[in-house]
Amino acid sequence: MFIFSDIPALTVPLLDSVPSSMMPAFWCAAALLASTLSVVVGMTFASGHGGGDEDGQSPQIDTEALKKSIEALEALSERSAVQTEQLAELYVVQATLDSDNADMDVVLAPLTKAAALLRQALAGMEDGELRRSLGNVFMHQAEVYNEFDEVHKALEFYDQAIATFKPLDEQGDGEAKYDIAGIRLNRGTIYHEIGEFDKAKADLNESFTAYRAVEKISDLDTRYYMAKVSVVQGDLFRDMDEPLEVVVDAYNRAMRLFVELIDIGQTEHERDLANALLRRCMAIYEDAAGKDGQSDAERQSCCDNVLIDVGRAVDILNKLDGEDNMDAHYDLFDALVAQGALLLDIGRYDETVQVFDRAIEKFADLADAADPVTLNHYASAFENRGLSLLNLEKQAQAIADFDQAAQLRQKIVSDEFGLDDSSKAVFISALATTFANRANAHADNGDMDKALADGRQGLELMRSIANAGDDGAEFREIEKLFEEMIELWK
Hints:
By secondary structure, the protein is mainly α. Among the domains are: 1-171, no CATH class; 362-490, Tetratricopeptide repeat domain (Serine Threonine Protein Phosphatase 5, Tetratricopeptide repeat), CATH 1.25.40. It is 75% helix and 0% strand. It has helices at 18-22, 24-41, 63-74, 81-97, 104-124, 128-147, 151-170, 174-193, 197-213, 219-239, 244-263, 270-289, 296-320, 326-345, 349-362, 372-391, 395-413, 421-444, 448-464, 472-489. Helix 8 packs antiparallel against helix 9 and helix 16 (372-391) runs parallel beside helix 18. The chain is elongated, with a radius of gyration of 26 Å. 46% of the residues are buried.
């Protein structure tokens, strides 16, 4: 039998990016400002602090009053530094209201106005609060560019934000140091994503050091961000092929910090703890899988230990699962897929089927996912259950699962998602793998015509992407496997 394993790399959800959680103080300033202006122009905000009401919701803004407030300040022939800062902050509020707009230029327009206004004011005088406001605007601009996948422009504005905050930091301003630490975390994350690992490492190291050196608002906030940096460092070290001890140390540090927060009642970090635990599990498993000369007993022992910790993560997410915590709900799916993939890898096929039964049934809505990565991940649950059933000699059930996986992946590679050729190639390779596994199932079932038909479909798909980007060499190796399989079955 030609084995085309579909055990996916674990995709543990990332923590939310820093600016959305660093910036509430700025949003709050804008909200308080607007509440003050409401005395004059009737602008109303819901009561609250930290950028939202007591339930964490964004303030309800009277958009017409916001527009009038902006117009009133714009109409002034001369503005004081305070009024300049107020107008800039209202522009940021406008950008927040526009943040769901599909047109990046619409979202950026008020931020561009705010930056120009503050730059002009600072050209004539040095004012710490104006400088802080300008740094915040640059952070927002960077976040918008990042949201629209303009990562190099995002890096440019993060650079400007750091340069703007730096004079304040050099004067011993703890808040500026705190903001720079958050920017470095975000910038380091982008460098990681685009493969500039050394720059990412430097930014993340400086971010962690800065968070450790400063206390702002409360030690709990600092502790949370130190944990957040540690998780991203662990991810980076994995991709840099750093020694396992270095990777595990980063995740362990994050988990210790999350546990400290949970122990004092901040239970919202239980999800973060589960995800850090899953990341550590996969790092240990990947290291063991890549070692040469490891005995079956050593590999089994490692997988058994990893499975215990994956089970703990599943238990945490099970507890959090519910309509009021949809992030944890879908994290649970990722954890179940990881658990099932590990069980499949060590040959515990009955347990594998049980885990994927639960994942497939509980998360049936993912069959309609609008994101190709999520849809492919759901297809992998069918694929891996099918492989388990095939190993249990339940060919008919395995074929049914491969049919489902193929149907989902054919949807991904259709024009529905509008993927570019490079992105589509990865999913075409996954679809070819599905055909190969279904071909094996047909062959085991004695239906060689269907086996050959699937094998030829898979070969045709692999030939279509044989020269696709950086993965071309790997794709050509898979193509050779198809050729050998078909030659054997002729």
